[in-house]
Amino acid sequence: MTAKHQRQQTMIEARRALVLDAARTVFDESGMQGANIREIAKRAGYTPGAIYSYFDSKESIYGALLAESLERLHVDVAKVRIVKNKPEKTLLAKSLAWFGFFAHNPRDLDLTFYLIRGMKARGLPAEIKLPLDERLRDALRPGEAALLEMGLNATQAARESAALFAHGMGVLLLPAGSPTLLGQSPESMFQVYLEQLLSRYSAAGGSLPADEDAATGSTQVDLFA
To answer: Which of 143, 158, 183, 221 is deepest in the core (most CB within 10 A)?
Structure first.
């Protein structure tokens, strides 16, 4: 790459970053559904037409923002070491890592919630949604692998991983001071759920009792469908 091309690329990346910074503010204030290209352009100091030189839609801006967010999530989860031959500790540590990321980064929580739920009504293009779904799953896979190491079969591990994620997102999305929390913090509620999960499978020798497993069937929860 020539020096000229390098300068042009640097300028393009700087302008894209400016648009993304403006979009973060607009999404934070108006939500995904309320945000629009015109307002994002205004905050970035561009005309709406200029935005399309870098992003072809509001959804592609959202996708770029969430992609960055998920990379930061992966960094946090990867910092937590896998505890060799102690899958219970690995599950606990990895789960608390992704939960802590969302607990301390509410904007990232909001972006992720749109991916798994909020965008369904509007419809996120598959070419944007599917890679983001997969990247989010990647952050949960260390916990699912720990469940497998604990003795769960693939169906059980996938189901429990999905339930754990759903519980974590659910308590984080409850408004502060909600009567539903009964004076408990989201962190303490998630910790209790994790401890109950570990206790349940430890007591069952690494798998559900036969009657409970049969009752749940083989249906696998997919939060990203």
So the answer is: 143
